[in-house]
Specification:
- Helices cover 17% and strands 33% of the residues.
- It is of the alpha+beta class.
- It has a single domain (36-213), classed as Umud Fragment, subunit A (Ribbon).
- The strands form three sheets. Strands 1, 2, 5, 6, 11, 12, 13, 14 and 15 form a nine-stranded antiparallel β-sheet that branches. Strands 9-8-7-10 form a four-stranded antiparallel β-sheet, with no helix packed on it.
- The longest helix is centred in the N-terminal third of the chain and has 33 residues, at 3-35.
- The termini are far apart.
Length: 215
């Protein structure tokens, strides 16, 4: 027996095994990211105080179903069925309607069939004021709805299969007040938990935020 050939064959077999293991891991990671769970980083302050710049989240893609795109494109080929549609008050990640290559995160404030309105910064849904302990306002001035919809808009009737989204940092959020509704088919998932948070101002982790459930 030629020991050298045996050694080469053994080395080749090991390389093939490693390649198979790496390939399998990559395929599983792609499947999990596409259908089950996805990481998302908060890039802006529109959801302060609930979510901070530098928070890293895990997003549940099973609960609502998710659009499935051709890899490395933004072309949706089909939509995975979900367990239910988004509810008012939930924080979700979705494709930005004006540029589907970008992902946005906001809170659902109204769903199909709801009438939504804002009067002097107070949100109303179906004619009733909404109590929101999680929001903040950083500007005491009131802007007329004739100038812009930040503080005064509506009433609007939310169409079928649409969602009205707003950021918790109400005076500093670019949301449905400005660009309209989100189609439920463009929803990517429900924000679940903060698994990592980095404070760039202090150049250190925010350990107290890690493991925090998102409500």
């Amino acid at each position: 027996m030629d020991k050298r050939n045996t050694g080469k064959a053994t080395a080749t077999d090991k390389l093939l095994e490693y390649a198979k293991a790496i390939g399998t891991a990559l395929i599983l990671a792609l499947i999990i990211r596409t259908f089950v769970i996805q990481a998302f980083k908060i890039p802006s302050g529109s959801m302060i105080p609930t979510l901070l710049i530098g928070d890293h989240l895990l997003v549940n893609k099973i609960v609502y179903g998710t659009p499935v795109d051709i890899p490395f494109t933004n072309v949706t080929v089909f939509h995975m069925p979900g367990l239910r549609t988004p509810h008012k008050g939930e924080i979700i990640v979705f494709k930005y309607p004006e540029d589907p290559t970008r992902d946005f995160i906001k809170r659902v404030v109204a769903t199909e069939g709801d009438t939504v309105q804002m009067i002097d910064k107070q949100l109303f849904v179906n004619g009733k004021p909404v109590e929101e302990s999680f929001t903040q306002h950083t500007d005491n001035s009131i802007r007329s709805g004739q100038l812009e919809p930040r503080d005064n808009f509506g009433p609007y009737l939310v169409p079928k299969n649409k969602l009205f989204m707003m950021g918790d940092n109400r005076d500093q959020s670019y949301d449905s007040r400005f660009w309209g509704y989100v189609d439920v088919k463009q929803v990517l998932g429900k924000a679940m938990i903060i698994y990592w948070s980095w404070d760039s101002n202090k150049s250190m982790p925010r350990f107290d935020r890690m493991g925090k459930l998102i409500n």
